[in-house]
UniProtKB/TrEMBL annotation:
GO molecular function: deubiquitinase activity
Organism: Dioscorea cayennensis subsp. rotundata (White Guinea yam)
Alphabetical keyword list: Hydrolase, Protease
PANTHER family tied to this protein: DESUMOYLATING ISOPEPTIDASE, PUTATIVE THIOL PEPTIDASE FAMILY PROTEIN-RELATED
Protein name: DeSI-like protein At4g17486
Entry's family note: Belongs to the DeSI family.
C-alpha cells in the first residue's frame, strides 16, 4: 500500500466525492472496539486553537480543533464556500496553523485501508464545506461521528464542550478562530490552478 509522499502530505488535501449517489450505510457491520479482535488503532488528535486553553483547560473547556488518525493519515473537517467536500487530510499531528496538544486512543477498526478510503469518500457527501457551522457542525462534531462509526466510541465531552454552550460561544471566540484550516485548501487550489486538478484522496492510493 502506497500513501502520498511526505512532501505532498504537508499540504491540506480535500477529499472529493466521486459523484455516486450516497447510500445510507456503506458498512453496516462496523464493529466497536470491544467487539473487534485485532484491527488497527484509531486516534483522536487534539489541537489548541489558542493559548487561552492553557488557562481554562482546568475548568473542562477549551477551544480545540481535532482530527481522526487511522492508517497514518489524519482526517478533519472545515469550512469553505462551496457545496463540495469539507473533509481534508494532513500528516498526523501536524495540522497547519494549530498547536498539537495530545493524541487519544479511541479504539480499533476492522476496516482495511481501501475500505477506510471508501468510507471517507461516502462521509464527504454529508460533510460539505458550506454546511460547516461553528456551533452545530464543526470539526469536533465530525470526529465524534466518525469515531463512533469506526470504533463504537464517542470522543471525550471536553473536546467540544464550548460549542455546546451555544450562543455564548460566538461572543467568546476571537474572529480569527472562526476560520477553519480548510481555508488553506483554497490557497492550495489557487497555487495548483483549478480546483478540479486536485486528485481525490482515494485515487492517490495504489491498490493492495
Amino acid at each position: 500500500m502506497k500513501f502520498c509522499s511526505k512532501k505532498q502530505s504537508n499540504s491540506l488535501k480535500p477529499i472529493r466525492a466521486s459523484g455516486k449517489s450516497p447510500c445510507f450505510c456503506l458498512f453496516p457491520k462496523i464493529h466497536s472496539a470491544c467487539q473487534t479482535q485485532g484491527g488497527v488503532p484509531v486516534y483522536l488528535n487534539v489541537y489548541d486553537l489558542t493559548s487561552m486553553n492553557d488557562y481554562i483547560r482546568w475548568a473542562g473547556i477549551g477551544v480545540f480543533h481535532c482530527g481522526i488518525e487511522v492508517y497514518g493519515v489524519e482526517y478533519a473537517f472545515g469550512v469553505h464556500s462551496y457545496p463540495t467536500s469539507g473533509i481534508f487530510e494532513v500528516e498526523p499531528r501536524r495540522c497547519p496553523g494549530f498547536r498539537f496538544r495530545q493524541a487519544i486512543f479511541m479504539g480499533m477498526t476492522s476496516l482495511n485501508p481501501n475500505q477506510i478510503s471508501e468510507f471517507m469518500e461516502r462521509q464527504s457527501l454529508n460533510y460539505t464545506g458550506d454546511t460547516y457551522h461553528l456551533i452545530t457542525k464543526n470539526c469536533n462534531h465530525f470526529c465524534n461521528d466518525i469515531c463512533y462509526k469506526l470504533t463504537g466510541n464517542l470522543i471525550p465531552k471536553w473536546v467540544n464542550r464550548l460549542a455546546r454552550i451555544g450562543a455564548i460561544c460566538s461572543s467568546i471566540l476571537p474572529k480569527a478562530l472562526k476560520v477553519s484550516a480548510v481555508r488553506q485548501i483554497k490557497d492550495y487550489e489557487r497555487q495548483e490552478g483549478e480546483k478540479q486538478r486536485l486528485r481525490p484522496m482515494f485515487q492517490r492510493r495504489s491498490s493492495i
